[in-house]
């Protein structure tokens, strides 16, 4: 949902009336208000650190970093190297002591933390009588890190280190090395003897130490001297931005003065870097120091409500994951910058050649990155791969895997701001059924509440919420209601009365409750950094507290950056105080995560009231996020626009999130702002059918656009796309299960699936669905009737619908009239699906399966199916089916193999599913020698001690020109959860 413009409280009512009148006349504007958000030049610490880098570069080889490791302080024990870095102040004899720890973990990752001794001891003075903590914020790991940090007992200090260095070998087979240079301080990370990552290689390490503010007499400026020139002290140090900093009518008091941390990270030999969402640029990150096709500002991570955001921009958006991968042919590495404060990342790609006469032969590209955060620790993790899967898995082990959602959560969601009454909701539900269009969830935006008071229902428009939810439940459908973190300041509202009386709200810099403005007007914000506040918030979801809520109601946490209409950059002042007196500047990017965490825990507690013994998995959608938010639910890309550019941008945005550990992502189908054309809406549904999170949403000022309102042609096409999503739900659910185990992206970019194919590294408009071999390229251009799809290898690819054969490697033209999604099947894969159309996914629970076997060039194929009740945590006790299907060309046989681990509920679930059968097997690229064959042999485990087989009907279909031969086995009479084998010889 969008923000509003900043206003003074005294004018709020008048402005709302004015805006209401204008909304009757005009549709929303479609441009971001740049003046509301800082550029690097307007951010003091960003400007200082860029200037630091510029000064170092201008000195070139004459520049030496003023940070050196005190060799005498070094100790190494149990996988951890500790010591002290000494920062030399060029303008004085002072040195600043910076404790450093370098940790090596059994997972193969490494971690570097740099702190400030004076701050650790609290030996500093705060300005303005501030109550803020004196330490550097050191609790980010409490929220983001859940595993992968067991110190390695195998890490060892090498005896052959060069003088002035310390070398540690670690990782699997001790193939990783960290070479720590003492003076200047730096670290070189190697794998198999090759350098992959360098820290402080360019000498841009910068820890702005605490210093007292000294008032100086104003000196008369010399003619031609610019403002601030007289206070430039050392390289890049501009004292004019050290202290109080004003922007947009708000002043940040900065009680600790300048305190940013910065570090350069170099990836030698790597041209492509990915990650650091959320932004609207390409998947392969652009350079940020200007030039043709590059950005002029660094990538910014500072969660904010960016109204009508623009395309191809490094501007901040709603979420922040400071994780970056670097990739080259057959090698991937990565870093995670664990800091929750405002962060910027510069990227420069430097090409070099060993021989100036080589004409580029043998040249390589180094990607040089520069990271800087406003406050907190310098805390960075290093991952040495060597594959994209390894790096993503290691990062996910660290920050947590995507939870396995309920099945309804990965089906089709229908939302708008707003469905206006409970009868409106029920009418929409009936019309979906009348048109035979499947959906699982309908959503309520803020207007369902009583005067924007959350945990209430408007008594006039939603007088019977339980009756509404019952109608949905009768068809296995759910309701999701929005609940935001701003609490209306209105006397007699029990939620705000408790919030104030229990002192659970965020405070201002003076230690009083912070008041700001959001949808309800005057509001307070729950402080979910407080354990007491989280517990209180979670209890509000109990049925006795949230009256009118039923077991099929789930939650949407919006505006949780947090969005504050009259705040700086539409968010909270940085000198606000949270639990423990941590400043908001220290924790800003974590704020959304803490709210979702509290909501998730509350729903877990609520669901314990359910009769289902295993407990029901919660569903929460968040707009704001940080590394670790993926553990609690889904996210979406915020307030997009109904135009082709935003449709096109949704693909790299979702892919970037997937390779950054947050694969349960989607975008508003149809665009939030504006009215899409019928063609655009149709194409967006086709694309959305391949978003992991698939929700249609629209602004309150837009025309209704539910699929059943479309003309017959487009309605039929959209219905076809929706039924495709539902047919493939077994494949989607299996991909989600894989993600919950190893962090794998649910939709995968080309470089991830084919890490050795350099031509595919930058491609971000097509993607694979998990490991199914399904390759889709949604149409994102107006009027397009074909697409150019890139095939990365020599394997055969087949059109999903008619089995047309496409050969790679290279680009192929795929016809794509309006009723066609460019979707190919890669040879060598087996795809599970359910072909019977239903109104919702819950009604498919006992439907039979179809297996699509797509034979590869070698005549083989393989695929998996994961299946559980799609609702509870019983799978943790063995209540699931996990099968591997393998077709072996050498023996012309298809077999089902059990991959499950037995638990106390395994037998019960297998018995429950024993009658769920495989009703059809389709073999694409079938051998021509099968022509004339009419039956196949089927043997099922446990049916005959003598191993006798039964027969099943078989039909071979010869492909027309350019199409593959295919065959079908009808009703093989085998259980989806059992062991069996089908012989085609």
TrEMBL record:
Keywords annotated in UniProt: Endoplasmic reticulum, Glycoprotein, Glycosidase, Hydrolase, Signal
Keyword rRNA processing applies: no
Protein name, UniProt field: alpha-glucosidase
Chief subcellular location: endoplasmic reticulum
Region (Disordered) residue spans: 215-258, 933-952
Chain ranges of the Glycoside hydrolase family 31 N-terminal domain: 99-346
Organism for this UniProt entry: Aureobasidium pullulans (Black yeast)
PANTHER family: ALPHA-GLUCOSIDASE (PTHR22762), BCDNA.GH04962 (PTHR22762:SF54)
GO biological process, one term: N-glycan processing
Family to which this protein belongs: Belongs to the glycosyl hydrolase 31 family.
Location within or outside the cell: Endoplasmic reticulum
The UniProt record lists the keyword Signal: yes
Domain of life: Eukaryota
